[in-house]
# Entry
Amino acid sequence: MLLDIATNVIANIVFWLGLGLAVAMMARIAQRRFRSFFGLHTNQQLIVCLSNLWTTATSSRPRGYSISLHELRASEAITRLFGSASFRLPDLVRGLVDAIYLGRHRYDFRNNVSPASSDDPKHFSDLSGNLIVVGAATRNSIRGLYLQENLISLRISNEYSDTDDQRPPPEMKYVEVLNGAGLGQLVTSESLDLAVVEKIHDTARGTTVIFCLGRRGDTTWAATEYLARNWRSLQREFGSKPFALCLGFRDPGYQYDYHTPRRLLTLRG
# Structure
């Protein structure tokens, strides 16, 4: 009788120790992939950089900050990744992982707004950290900075300044390839709203930058939601290497109605 009880106790101890080790291994693998994908293995800062809708034409102040509701919701999608420890695990187990594993890896995660149009984006202090840049260059000066530095592979047709002689007419909607073998290639769709999700390595600053943008605020939200939902599959496909995707979303109609997009173009770094 006592032998049976002792055997059962030992078997349970071994089982729970084995389960704990398995969970710890899963946590380490998942966190290693998460950190590598977002650049946190070399730089522990990750900043979501939102577009700045403020302009000097609407205010007498020298600078200001204004963000759209869609982009605010987009930042919430990224925040969820840190709130859930990025694991597909039950809440109880995830809480254990948070306490044991994430405590060893402190991340500086925050949201910020891109500089006003009157400011020099090169002086943006958060350029020293990894970035998720939300929104197109017309409103996000950090996105515009990377376009100027020729570090981006895909550009949406509305990312031209109002004074640019090459600015296409508003009815033209496309994504343009800016480098590589497909230089000058245009991706169009009559039925889908186009969006871009692109990851680059800024070697000069030693950071990883991910861009999420569409022609409108709702498509920009959908592109950011795509990143938050699919970073695991993207990590499996591309690892830590750069990539650029042109996505086609069903028109959200300015709602938060997410549908899985079609991948219209894939560029590998």
In short: Confidence is low (pLDDT under 50) at residues 85-103. The chain is about 35% helix and 20% strand.
